[in-house]
Amino acid sequence: MTFSALSVLAPAGDWIRAGRKAIEVRRWSPEKWPLRNLLIVQNSNRLSCDGLTSDPDGKVVAMVDVAMVRPWQKDDLVASVSDIFEEGWLAWELQNIRPVDYPLPVSACRKIYEVELEQKYLQIKKA
User: For the domain that residue 86 is a member of, what is the CATH number?
Assistant: First the structure.
């Protein structure tokens, strides 16, 4: 099965999976939203446009819906599990967070990308 995915740096994926992190903070907005059934892939290496652009050892941790993208605000610090606020960032509101178990490594890439998962190994839990 093919899914759209978004990679996050560990431990943010674990926080999303547990429902602790309901806002993902980015400098860019997806081309369209709302986004439904977006896979969250956690990786341990920071990806950037001028350095490492993918990590073959990502781990699928959750599936979410991105309900809205709006300017990030100081009031979002707790929901984004952030300590410091900085103007100019965007808050991606994550809803319908579902833990996902998938035992195989998945490539983590920048932006929103497509990933192919083997359905027989995919377990999506209810929110």
Answer: 2.30.130.30
